[in-house]
Amino acid sequence: MHSADPHICFQGGLRGHTEDEHLFIVLILSFLQRREQRRQRDDTSYLLGNRFGIIMPLDFVGTFSNRWSYGIAFGATANKVMFLFSEGYQPLQIPQWAQAFELLIGGLEVGLSHFPFFACLSSEFQLVSSTLGFCYSLIWFAVTILQVSQCPHGQFVGKYETLVFYWPSLLCLAFLLGRFLYMFVKALRVHLGWELQVEEKPVLEAHQAEHVKQLLRTPRPQEEKKSWFQTRIYEWDPCFQFPSRMIGTIVLAFICLYLFIVIEFCMFVYVRDELEMFENKLESYITSVNHSGILTPAILQVKELISVTKGVWVATILPASLTCVSYLFHILVCYRKHIKRLWAGDKHFLPLRFRNPASSESVVAIARYSGWQIAYILWGYFIIHVVQSLCGMAIMYGLVLPIVHKQGLEMLRGLGIGILTISIVVGLMILQMWIATSFFLQPKLGTADKQKPLALNNRKAFHNFNYFLFFYNVLLGLGACLSRLLISCLLGTWLIARIDRTIMPSGYEGADMGFSAWIGMLYVDHYHTNPVLVSFCHILITDHRERKLQQTTKYWCLNQSAGPRVSARSRTRWLLLQTLINNPRLVMLRKSKLGHSSQESQILMTCSDS
Q: Is 36 helix (H, G, I), strand (E, B) or coil?
């Protein structure tokens, strides 16, 4: 059984099976979720008590637990995301100008159909949510297997074409089945009293606390030498974790990139078959007009062009794919580097316009970032593939084909002339630099100076030098302008998938909407997950809870009298002494009375010696 588009084959069969199930799961989880505040009695929702609270599928800012589970849940949506990306979702007959609303409806449907996965993963009622999540994942897995078995083959890839499209989703669903089963077993053991109940989600994560402790420690010289991988590529930091949003974005981007490459290959197979039919027609035409021989060379060149294009396009699939895959890993590296700089208060790596962005822009940016990052990767792969194919065509027609056609000497002669011309131009530019350095600049002021001062020498010769080279530099500027255009096009197309850096010139960074989304996302994470700020809030919350517990304890005074009492002043002085011992330079910055600074320094010296 052949299927022209496995996505269309899948959509019609699955939509009806999951609408009722996900509505049932959402209602149950919403019933279990309690609202923090009751409504007024004159409100009709007061009859519901504090039931039917709002379900949060995922905390896009501060979630660091179950990161890979959320990431795999995002990966399960890859096929539907690609179905929307190809604009194959058209349930309504609406005008062309209203297609944005149609795509919005499609995005909402994808979100609703996969909402139970995230709701069951993030729910506090693990026993119920794991059961519902397992059943929902099992339904998805069974229906997907049924669809693959019903129409396994296709006309582009051939055998098992549908499986080629849907094995990532099946793998993600299998992982979710195992994850929900593990959650069920763990929740059941807690319910039976075999294990202790896990505490509620802490305000301060363990890696954030370690980061703050590392800041408070005295920096020590690094004794261990770092490897080449650690210095050049990536170094693991135990005091840092990527949020669930970044993990989910990268996982979904990987799967969508794979699906995009498969779809592109299917389109290539279709175009290749059409070109083969065209070549057959050309061959029949050549045999019919072979007695004249007028059009035969041109037709053979067309056949050669088609053959070279097909070969170059296939050969550049791998380097274009590896380029985008390396970009995905590099995005994670840049995220950690940029967010750490913001934590340290360093904003110099940002353009001036983005050093104080609007709060509304940042909030919208964190909602846009994940989707835009995936779209940039997909379109970036296609553009990089096209550019690499054009470069491959240039290499084939400039170097390879002349040798095949026994025109290697002419090719080498032309290549040598071109290299010699460029070498002479570059040599003249270097000669200008050498003459300017040797004759038109005054000597160094000191022996330790790295370069001569910007002070003219031999002014008459300098003005004659500028006059006679003025007309030559006009022609040289034409080549420089063309090289500037070529380099800008190459770098722009090569870095189009990099949303973490702008390809716009200085002063026009605001026109790069992708880079604006990246900066806004960084600021939201910086303001809400800064370890120092979160640690401070954790201390305040803990202190508030302790005071509230002390006030509600009936025999608090008796309990306090059982142990030694420490005054707040003594505790503060002890902490101050400990801080000054760890940071001796702070003694010079303290505002103290006369004579106290010297005494404190002597005390610190004795403490450090001991």
A: coil
